[in-house]
Amino acid sequence: MAIDIPDIYYCFKGQYYDVNGFDVDPFEMESHCKSHLIPDENRIYINLNEMHGENDIYFILAHEIRHCAQYQATEGIGLTDIALPETIYKWKREFSRYNLGCNDESCQEVELDAMAFTWFIGKVLLNVDVDLNCDEALVEPYKQYIRRNYSLMEIKERLDYSGLEFGRNQA
Asked: Sign of torsion, CA 49 53 55 59?
């Protein structure tokens, strides 16, 4: 996935900071939300107070980063192989109606694809099954596309290139 890297901001116990640990202006999120995305600004907001362990953070980041890639694909940024052209067209329609709140939009194409990508990252990088809390039959076609188009070697190469290091779960 070749994308413009999103800005990521965290909230934890009343502290607000960016991915480099620098203080940022406070931002608002619904208290029960784990994350919030503003696709046209390429920004992800993470509520660490709602996380349940290190893997939860990785899964949320994978999900939201996939949304960033989806949105960028609809805008002609990044690689076109992220999805079939008809899927990207559907994403464009969905993003035009994108609800910035923390609502269950789990049957939308963008959500099903992001869930499948999260599942893939869980399997490939962390060697764990991700409970997607949805109808697996709806997600399966997206899993198949991602499995066919991303390899373990490619993911590990991208991880090495990024310099990102996992805590207790090494890829």
From this structure: negative
Report the candidate in 158, 139, 162, 140 with the shortest Cα–Cα distance to residue 150: 158
The arithmetic mean of pLDDT across residues 132-153, rounded, is 84
Query: What would the pLDDT profile of 62-85 be if each residue is shown by its tens digit?
Result: 999 999 999 999 998 876 678 889
Please report where in the chains the tokens 């694909």 appear, as a residue. Answer: 73
Residues 113 and 46: their CA atoms lie apart, in Å, by 20
Which is nearest to 74 in space by CA: 55, 59, 94, 46?
A: 94
Question: Which of 67, 119, 117 has its CA nearest to residue 94?
Answer: 67
Angle (deg, nearest 10), helices 85-96 and 54-74: 100
